[in-house]
Amino acid sequence: MRSQEISQKLRMSNLTQDLNSQDEHCRSNAYRDILTLADDGDGDAMFQVARCLNLGLGVETNPLKADYWLRRACSASPASANALYTYGMQHLSKKRPDADVTKGISYIERAASSGLVKAILQQVSMVENGLLHIKPDLHRAFRLVATATATIRDAQLHKAYLSFCERHQPISNLLDS
Asked: Is the peptide bond before 78 cis (omega within 30 degrees of 0)?
């Protein structure tokens, strides 16, 4: 990662923390600064703007504008993994007027492929248990969780891997030959 990218991520992290402040003035300033980053094309900032507008963090709630920024964060380059996951889950749980489960699955898969742990766990669950046109496939679910665990160091992911293995004993039945 370049120095400028690291600096941008650090700034975004600090502003996101400021949104959790109990001080409304601090949240309002953080929202203003995040909105500037979003206007400059930062996908993660766009997601945070959507979050602020949904929850009223530093700004009045506005569901229509929040949805606009969420969709924009999904199409940014690079897209916000959190936005992809949130948008996908909205479709999957039919919390959108235009809900499309197939579209939801696609967005969750995109978020998972970017390494977002909660998206990976959702994808594993969809494949393990089946959903809509996805038939349950324990081998594929195992490969997804095993590959993610091997490449991403995360306690929640590791716990999910162990739980998967315990549920599907003997695990040797799931290993590729």
From this structure: yes
130-141 pLDDT tens trace: 987 789 999 999
pLDDT tens digits, residue range 70-86?
999 999 999 999 999 99
Q: What is the DSSP letter of 29?
A: H
- Contact 83/73 with Cβ under 8 angstroms? yes
Q: What does 59-119 look like in DSSP terms, one character per residue?
A: S---HHHHHHHHHHHHHSSSPPHHHHHHHHHHHHTT-STT--HHHHHHHHHHHHHTT-HHH
H helix intervals, 130-154: 138-151
- Is-contact 67 73, C-beta < 8 A? no
CA 170 remoteness from chain centre: 32
**Alpha carbons 151 and 170: distance in angstroms, whole number:** 23
The first and second tokens of residue 112, run together, are 């998972």
